[in-house]
Design a protein that fits this description.
By secondary structure, the chain is of the alpha/beta class. It is built from ten helices and five strands, in the order βααβααβααβαβααα.
Amino acid sequence: MTIIICDSSLIVLLSKLELLDLLIEVFESIVIPQSVFVESVDQGKEAKKMDAFFIEKRIIDQKIIVEKIKDLTEKENLMKNFNLHDGESEAIVLYSEKKADLLGTDDYKTLKVCKILNITYFTTPLFIFLCYSKKKLSKTRSILKFKELYKFGWYKKGLISEFIDRIENSEV
C-alpha cells in the first residue's frame, strides 16, 4: 500500500480544484498530521472556507487519516532550521515516522527541504499530470484544471503553460 503524507497547501489546493477525491482514489492511504487538520479544517471553518468542510467530510468518512507525530524535537528543529510552519514540519516528521512513499506539498520552502533531505514529493501540477497520464483525467479536463490552478496564483504562468503544452502535444 502506498502511503501519502500531505500538508495543508496540497489538500486545500486539490480541494479547491475539486480533485481531492481523485487523490484519494489514486492513492489508497492519505495521511495528514494533526497540525494540518488544524490549519486546513479548524482554521478553514472559522474563515468559512468551503474546502475546509469538504476536507473534514473526507476525514469523517476515514478517507483521510489524521495522525499525531511522535518526534516533537525534530518538528522544532525543522521549524527553527528551515523556517517552516507547524503543518509543513509535522508533515515531514510524519513522512519519516511512517516511512511514507510520498509527501504532497505545494509549499515552496517545504519543496526546498524535501530536496535537501531526499524526500520523495509531488505537487498539485505533478498530480494533475499524473492523472492525465493514467487516463484518470481527460485532456480537456486536465487543461481546465491547470487553468484553474493558475487563477489561484500559487504557480507561475510559465510552469502552468509548460504542463498545458505537454498535455496538448501528447498522445495519452
